[in-house]
Amino acid sequence: QLQLVESGGGLVQPGGSLRLSCVISGLSGRPLDYFQVGWVRQAPGKEREGVSCFSSSDGDTYYSDSVKGRFTISTDNAQNTVHLQMNNLKPEDTGVYYCVADAITTVLYMCTVAVNNSEYWGQGTQVTVSS
Taking the CA of residue 115 as centre, how many other CA atoms within 13 Å lie in the half-sphere pointing to its CB? Predict the structure, then answer.
């Protein structure tokens, strides 16, 4: 059973940057690249949105149109950590950001059709973009 713990959220002004991290444990000897990983966010009153998903085994990467060019997902397989570097933040990026992982999916499916259905979820970290 995986455990996902996010950190790095906070309050930032528009145009600022944040780096979210997600430490994954409970891998039971499996490498991190056994799983597809990603970040899903939920803004108040809105449906969940797959922000970015990534497969470190083949480099397949997905970004939503709303964050493309501003956010970068990466993994540190030695540290079993997933990062989301967020630059040029906008007020509409405000929300709770969840780290997700799933072994039986594709990156595109995980972040779009199955955005609510990843097998493993973190507890979420709040990101607020406001002046």
Answer: 18
Is 17 in contact with 77 (CB distance < 8 Å)?
A: no
Q: Alpha helix (H) ranges present in the chain?
A: 107-111
| Cross-strand pairs, 53 | 38, 62
How confident is the model over 20-73, as pLDDT tens digits?
Answer: 999 999 998 888 989 999 999 999 999 999 999 999 889 999 999 999 999 999
Contact call for residues 86 and 77 (beta carbons, < 8 A): no
Give the whole-angstrom CA distance, residue 12 versus residue 78: 30
DSSP state of 38: E
Q: Are 40 and 113 in contact (CB under 8 A)?
A: no
